[in-house]
Amino acid sequence: MKLNIAILPGDGIGPEIITQALEVTKAICTKFNHELTYKEALVGAIAIDKTGNPYPQETHNLCMDSDAVLFGAIGDPKYDNNPSAKVRPEQGLLKMRKELGLYANLRPINTFPSLIHKSPLRPDLVEGADFMCVRELTGGLYFGRPQGRSEDGNTAYDTCVYTREEIERIVRLAYKLAGQRNKKLTIVDKANVLCSSRLWRQVSQEIEKEFPDIETEYMFVDNAAMQIIQWPKRFDVLVTENLFGDILTDEASVITGSLGMLPSASIGIHTSVFEPIHGSYPQAAGKNIANPLATILSAALMFEYAFDLKKEGALIRKAVDASMEQKIVTEDIAFDGKAYSTFEVGNWIVDYIK
Amino acid sequence: MKLNIAILPGDGIGPEIITQALEVTKAICTKFNHELTYKEALVGAIAIDKTGNPYPQETHNLCMDSDAVLFGAIGDPKYDNNPSAKVRPEQGLLKMRKELGLYANLRPINTFPSLIHKSPLRPDLVEGADFMCVRELTGGLYFGRPQGRSEDGNTAYDTCVYTREEIERIVRLAYKLAGQRNKKLTIVDKANVLCSSRLWRQVSQEIEKEFPDIETEYMFVDNAAMQIIQWPKRFDVLVTENLFGDILTDEASVITGSLGMLPSASIGIHTSVFEPIHGSYPQAAGKNIANPLATILSAALMFEYAFDLKKEGALIRKAVDASMEQKIVTEDIAFDGKAYSTFEVGNWIVDYIK
Ligand SMILES: CC(C)[C@H](C(=O)O)[C@@H](O)C(=O)O
Ligand SMILES: CC(C)[C@H](C(=O)O)[C@@H](O)C(=O)O
Questions:
Q1: What is the pLDDT of residue A246?
Q2: Counting C-beta atoms within 10 Å of the first and last residue's C-beta, which end of chain B has fewer, N or C?
Q3: Which of B124, B104, B127 is nearest to B114 (CA)?
């Protein structure tokens, strides 16, 4: 098969972890006889520095021309305390989501036995937790208009908008994922308060009828925020709108104790983007200590979701599991003192695949 | 002192727990020579059943005429799976918040040593956690207009609006509370995405200058959802807008393992309302098994916040602590088998106060 991918390293540790994920991707392509072509482009703070634009047109064109995008991380401390700066790295992210039509962010949440002691939750509650968060990514308060200020500047407003089509698309996707998993879907909204949530619930109740073999439950977002901590194992697939998803997926990601291990896939109309859920971790940039596993696992999701290459994805997962068993890991998850570098971990996994 | 209070039992276990809180209030008034007058009124599902309105005008008039409101809980299973029912108990709650001007919901989160094993978090993370959540309660997406549907019904929208005055009022209150506590304030927003959050941050940064002795930090809501689980002890006072507060306060409430113990105060322009944070727990209604302590502790908050009667509040707390030490508690927090009834627990506390 021919795989044509865009590489967007971004900021902070982005370049280092992307390098390892790319090496792993190359090794898989060699092993399975796929023809890989790839090109790199700028995104984030580094793109602002070099072009004034956090998501340059050139980068967008490359993404549109590619079959998949491997993305590192974006963000730079110089923007952290200034959320009203005219140009910000996050704007690039939002623009990319909108222009590529990345309507669904998928985050598998699962635990690694050797990392359970790092969870803030009691081990018995998280051991074996395994669910998938599906976050709508191009609607809601993030993109609704009008958004702005009154003339005197003393009133500010945002608009949460959802259309039937947007809801149908993501809820159907969530049902399909549930069908491939444990056949349970939790639909999270705030239908007791929000009009947009009532449309979510109405449309979901219609689509529910198309999937009689899936158990559906509806849950208010405040309740979901509680249950994710109280009973993480009760969830299989959880779907929700953009802002609720932002909050709940971050909450869910810490319960496993392995933030540096969690990948994500953003499914797009034009192309899909695969990236670790962690940030650009600027303190570690350039030090060759960042954990590359979340990005390497994002490459596994790329093989599975963008190219439907299941065996390739499975081999990456197997290699990652093996590296953890052999304790070839970076310092954030090192077991008894010995920590390996970003490069060493990536290299070990490449060797394992070969 | 003359205390004139409104009693709103509401639905489910509401009447039982309110009865105990009222008995405790009477005992305190007798002990400290206060003159107590009180009147009961309808709210919630029971108010719909009897009057067709979840917050009848009569109830509102009583609240306006009172110095404080003791509130039980509302909600009935018959409304649970029908968020678009024309009349719903929650509408009464929202109407009460708006009409009484309950702009600030205060939720102290603290741990009880004997209940720490009930927390989903590791004991070392929660032991000693003690912070105050301050949620804006009359603005944002809950009340912003326009809210509705397009003509064809296929698009739905809500509006998040905040004014400078609304933000100033609650942020100042949060600073004052931080001044009485450990002098640290965390202001939670999503200023990297929302215009309303950018106004929150701008106004907060202005008010920050009035309180140079308080340490201020700004945090994005997704990050706060993580840190509440990772490091609950790092917080002192946390303030945020209505919907973020809905989600984060519920998340925060489960970390203590003692949902049945947590009171709240909703500070109003006209009068303030004191209520447990738990719901109406319909399965337990009428069985004399519900835990009355959250409501009794809400009465303590009433003495402190509505009447500035610190000693009275402190004595209620002391009595609650004593009941727990003596293991005179309901089945939800019973230690080794022996559980007392709602009535017995309330009665024990009344006797202790006498
Ligand atoms: C950086 C920010 C705009 C972004 C979001 O809110 O979507 C981030 O928190 C995320 O979840 O990817
Ligand atoms: C019942 C509901 C409308 C309410 C809210 O969302 O405010 C509840 O969740 C709460 O927190 O008091």
A1: 97
A2: C
A3: B127
Contact A71, A105 (CB under 8 A): no
- CATH 3.40.718.10 positions along chain B are 1-101+269-354, 109-260
- If you measure from the C-alpha of residue B246 to the centroid of ligand 2, how many angstroms do you get, rounded to a whole number? 7
Long-range CB pairs of A331-340, under 8 A, 24+ apart, other chains included: A331/A289, A332/A260, A332/A291, A333/A114, A333/A115, A333/A118, A333/A258, A333/A260, A333/A261, A333/A291, A335/A114, A339/A289
Q: Which ligand is nearest to the CA of A220?
A: 2
Does the CB atom of residue B222 touch ligand 1 within 6 A?
yes
Residue of chain A minimizing CA distance to B221: A247
**Residue A283 contacts by C-beta under 8 Å, 6 or more apart in sequence?**
none
Q: How far is ligand 2, taken at its centre, from the CA of residue B288, in Å?
A: 25
**Contact at 8 Å (CB) between B319 and B353?**
yes
Asked if B20 and B296 touch (Cβ cutoff 8 Å), the reply is yes
pLDDT tens for each residue of B168-181: 999 999 999 999 99
Superfamily of domain A103-261: Isopropylmalate Dehydrogenase (3.40.718.10)
Ligand 1 centroid, distance to A264 Cα (angstroms): 13
Task: Say what the pTM is.
Answer: 0.97
Tell whether A49 is in a known binding site. no
A83, pLDDT greater than 70: no
What's the pLDDT tens digit per position in B274-304? Answer: 999 999 999 999 999 999 999 999 999 999 9
pLDDT in tens, B213-235: 999 999 999 999 999 999 999 99
Q: Are A228 and A248 in contact (CB under 8 A)?
A: yes
Helices (H) and strands (E) in chain A, counts: 13, 12
Which residues in chain B are closer than 8 Å to A105, comparing Cβ atoms?
A: none
Superfamily of domain B109-260 in CATH is Isopropylmalate Dehydrogenase (3.40.718.10)
Partner A contacted by B233 (CB < 8 A): no
Which CATH class name applies to A1-101+269-354?
alpha beta
Q: Where in chain A are all domains bearing CATH 3.40.718.10? A: 1-101+269-354, 103-261
Give CA–CA dist A349/A353, Å, rounded: 6
What is the strand order of the sheet A155-163 is part of?
A: A148-149, A155-163, B155-163, B148-149
Q: What is the distance between the alpha carbons of residues A197 and A28, in angstroms, rounded to a whole number?
A: 43
Distance from CA of A111 to the nearest CA of B (A): 16
Coil/strand/helix, residue B328: coil
